[in-house]
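Lab channel / #folding
Pinned by the channel admin:
"Please post every new chain as: sequence first, then the structure tokens as a reply. Keep commentary short and put observations after the output so the thread stays searchable."

First post following the new format, from NK:
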Amino acid sequence: MSLRPLRRSDLDPLHATASDPLIWAQHPDSLRWRRDVFEGLFEKLLASGGALVIVDRASGHLIGSSSFYDLDPADHSVAIGYTFLAREYWGGSYNAEVKQLMLDHAFAVVDRVWFHVGPQNLRSQRAMEKIGALLSHEAERHIGGVTMNFFHYVIEARR
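Reply from TO:
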């Protein structure tokens, strides 16, 4: 598995991965599997400059995506999110590997990484626990076109 920046040419292969409704079943925006909804997310991620694609090295296929967002130099923090993986990569080490690569990169610049998880997204909450993120608090946020309360998980740099 490897990570690289999102490119415009990734729309079709990434949507092929994201078009599985079960990927989004627990997500606050459960319609992201639809092409029109996904295109809106894709454009936002592309414009952000912080979006990455997850590539299966063996096949060369795009198997998901994750992003850096909300860089806060005053707080020495950044958020990681908008992560999704094809279902055949669930339950293994892929999500943890992606997050570890991103954490290593982030901690070269910041001291704190935030993750925002919807209260109904039990799969992502378990994933946060697996990577050692701690539940800090719950607060309303506007993320990806959805305004609602999100659980805020955090990992502090170990220096």
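NK: The chain has a mean pLDDT of 91.
TO: also worth noting, Residues 35-48 form the longest helix (14 residues).
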